[in-house]
Specification:
Rossmann fold, alpha/beta, Ribosomal Protein S8, Chain: A, domain 1, 3 domains, globular, 6-stranded parallel β-sheet, 5-stranded parallel β-sheet, single chain
Length: 382
């Protein structure tokens, strides 16, 4: 069995080596010739999987190691009898921790001693948005969730309008990209929605770049009383607009879900799907394959202040300012090189581990701080 896979999917050989021959190819440049002999195709969001890619191949299974599936032509796959699997929720925790790190930095810039005094509007309550809402609520934040499709299925749920979500101190976008239906998300935030945002507010987008009208956002950021904006996803990736990068507070190259655990969890989910397809029992588990983390333990003395300790721990695991600096550097390159440099930042992304890889030791019995660290996902020394 031949398995063709995006070269950026981690742990391919440890998971799939016993199932067949693994052939790595660049995901964005993947061609019909690359997949013609494949039985299994494994991709990420940068590969458009459609008739043009697969016609004439012997592919019988397609898996994407991502939550989103808007890069997949589902109807054509169904018509050809090609089985498809995604990895829903694989990197949800990674994105949640990305947002938490941004919130820490925002609270510090605002001079807040209590970051939970911020209200957070979450637009899109799927795997990522739902996990973020639960984490923030567990930490004590006031959370307001907007998700019209879910509200239609659950009229009694605790949902708010988009306008109410946009009125929060922080707005975090986690919608898929859809262009049809009763609630399309393409350019969900246009000029009129962006005009509602005020100075001091924070807008974070880790969903899909096209959910925001990029031209309208640039105009809003050039106007008075502009909000702070953090973008991890962009229109027209990888050829993103340097003018917009220069205006946002923080910009990162579509890596919010790029913790090692988040990426490898997607690989494991596809491995399990292929095992089911082949009728064999899985023999590999993610916990067996993850390497030792570079940071293993954090110790706080009795003099540590609660938010200071939290900020130290969260930023020790991940500080988005380093990714922001690398992205801004690529925008200084010649226009013909920027897109490749954007992809290069993702391909050669440094190892980032999740909170659960770190054990926190507290010198004194501070039950409030212990609850906070538990809610953040850190391990606590008994």
């Amino acid at each position: 069995m031949i398995i063709v896979a995006d070269e950026n999917i981690p742990l391919l050989e440890p998971f799939f080596g016993d199932l067949g021959e693994v052939r790595r190819v660049p995901g964005r440049a993947m061609t019909a010739a690359d997949v013609r002999e494949a039985d299994i195709l494994l991709v990420r969001s940068v590969t458009r999987v459609d008739q043009r890619l697969l016609a004439g191949s012997r592919v019988r299974f397609v898996g994407t190691a991502t939550i989103g599936t808007d890069h997949i032509e589902h109807g054509w796959l169904d018509a050809q009898g090609i089985r498809f699997e995604a990895a829903p929720g694989c990197n949800a925790n990674s994105v949640v921790e990305y947002v938490l790190s941004v919130l820490v930095l925002h609270a510090q810039r605002q001079g807040l001693a209590d970051w939970t005094s911020l209200s957070v509007g979450i637009v899109g309550a799927g795997n990522v948005g739902g996990a973020l809402a639960r984490t923030l609520a567990g930490l004590g934040f006031a959370v307001r969730v907007n998700d019209p499709p879910r509200q239609a299925r659950d009229p009694g749920g605790d949902y708010v309008s988009l306008a109410e979500a946009l009125a929060c101190d922080v707005v975090s976008l986690h919608t898929p990209l859809t262009t049809c239906g009763s609630d399309p998300t393409y350019q969900l935030l246009g000029a009129s929605e962006l005009a509602r945002l005020r100075a001091g507010q924070l807008l974070i987008n880790t969903g899909r770049g096209e959910v925001i009208d990029g031209s309208a956002l640039l105009r809003r950021l050039q106007a008075a009383n502009a909000p702070e904006v953090v973008l991890d996803v962009w229109e027209n990736e990888p050829a993103i607009a340097p003018e917009l990068v220069s205006r946002v507070w923080l910009g990162t190259p579509h890596i919010a879900g790029y913790s090692l655990e988040g990426k490898a969890r997607g690989t494991e989910m596809l491995y399990q799907a292929v095992c089911r397809l082949q009728g064999v029992a899985p023999t590999r588990e993610l916990g067996q394959l993850l390497p030792e983390p570079p940071l293993e333990r954090l110790c706080f003395t009795g003099s540590a202040q609660d938010f200071t300790a939290v900020a130290t721990a969260v930023n020790a695991c991940y500080d988005p300012r380093s990714d922001d600096a690398r992205l801004r550097y690529t925008m200084r390159l010649a226009a013909t090189h920027r897109a490749a440099a954007f992809d290069g930042l993702r391909k050669h992304y440094p190892v980032r581990r999740e909170h659960a890889s770190v054990t926190v030791t507290l010198a004194e019995a501070n039950e409030s701080l212990r609850r906070t660290f538990r809610a953040l996902g850190f391990r606590l020394e008994a």
